[in-house]
Amino acid sequence: MGQANERADFLVEQRSIEFIPHELRHGKPSDLMFVWFGANMELPVVAAGATTVASGLSLGWAVLGILIGVLLGTLLMASHSAQGPHLGMPQMIQSRAQFGYYGAAVPLIFVVLMYLGFYAAGVVLGAQALYELAKVPVTAGIVILSLASTVVAVFGYNLIHRFERYLSYLVAAVFLVLTVLLVTRHHPGEITPVSTGFALGPFLLAVSVPAISQLGFAPYVADYARYLPASTPISSVFWYTYAGVGVSGAWLMILGAALQQRFLGGPVAAIGTVAHGAGGTFAAITFVALILGVLSINALNIYGGYMSTMTLATTFYRRWRGGLAVRLAFILPVAAVATYLGFLYRDNLLGSFETFLVIVMALMSPWTAVNLVDYYVVRRGEYAVDAMYRPDGVYGRVNPAGMAAYLIGFAVQLPFMHNAYVHGPVARALDGGDVSWVVGAVVSGLLYHRLARVRSSADRPPRTARVS
Ligand SMILES: Nc1ccnc(=O)[nH]1
């Protein structure tokens, strides 16, 4: 099939985890702003914001925590994005440079679990919105939304880019009106806010949860930049991504906190009440936008889950590549498991979502640190592409530097964790505040820097293998 066809939006993408050849590269860095704005203007982000006030902070402190968390998480997330055009391959494949060909399976497994968890939270909230819109039972809604996200994921990269661009305009308009309504009107069912002020533990959580929500994109953010020309300036990739995901994250989380402060019954019902203030038609448009938002983010989660499970599987069966049959063979099971998790999540969403997020973060932040230190400090963007796809390449089977930095970075977090399963002594001293992910990232990053330097003369790829 010709190259022009490979760029069409309504043809199933033919590439998967392989290096994207330079002649197929297309698009502009500003596309990324739309992808990440559209993807992040979604209900789970509102729910993440709601957790800050739900844990007892006043709105002012919640907003401060959200802003700090979003700035930090987005900084790391956008630094991963910047690798996409240069590397031209999915982010998790490139993890083999830090963890080794087989070693990369460890963070990969956690990444797949993370996508599934985000998926489930999104689909439940989306199904609630579908119920508000058309009284579709939540169970049926979960199935309908899952099917739609699966179709978008099957078409892949170009359709996802196009979808997020149009969606961006719609959700920006809808949330602008909602924000104005919330600020300027009094709504039926509104409660008088009880300002509970500051407490250290909830404040630290109000930093961590937003940071995690933003950083949750890190393992796949570069995938959506991997078809951009390799000459795309790294700073523009960084800033367009930062703008898209940062503005949407801060906006919707602050909105979520404000809704939680003034309404009972969760974010979907609260948005419905506010939207009805501008009439039934606007409320219907709002729910359509919310449903499309969930559909779109979950297409990304399935697509990310597909590429990650494919990376995992091809670690052992190297011959599998693109092709519709292989694509479906990975996408359908990922979507089915994700949908099933949605059913399990249905009843205690906010509580389980928060627990899920802090556990995910403990597993992801050491990976983020190792990956970023490797890319920006140790190897400075020089990678041997072929070696990513071979167990006998320069990156070896298991890279002890990456594995040790990752595992130790995870272990040192235990005393700092505070969740449904672990109550670490340091977290208790911090009034239950969980900042374990910061500790994990710093320890893993420093340790990897040290260990990789010791080994670098042994496994540094030859200079001729520069990607760009
Ligand atoms: N914040 C998020 C990161 C990754 N996936 C999501 O659905 N949401």
From TrEMBL:
It is found in: Membrane. Keywords: Membrane, Transmembrane, Transmembrane helix, Transport. The chain crosses the membrane at residues 32-53, 59-78, 99-118, 138-159, 166-183, 203-225, 237-259, 279-303, 324-343, 355-377, 398-415, 435-452. Pfam families: Transp_cyt_pur. It comes from the Bacteria. Gene3D superfamilies: Hydantoin permease. CDD domains: SLC-NCS1sbd_CobB-like. It is a multi-pass membrane protein. Belongs to the purine-cytosine permease (2.A.39) family. This is Cytosine permease. It comes from Pseudonocardia eucalypti.
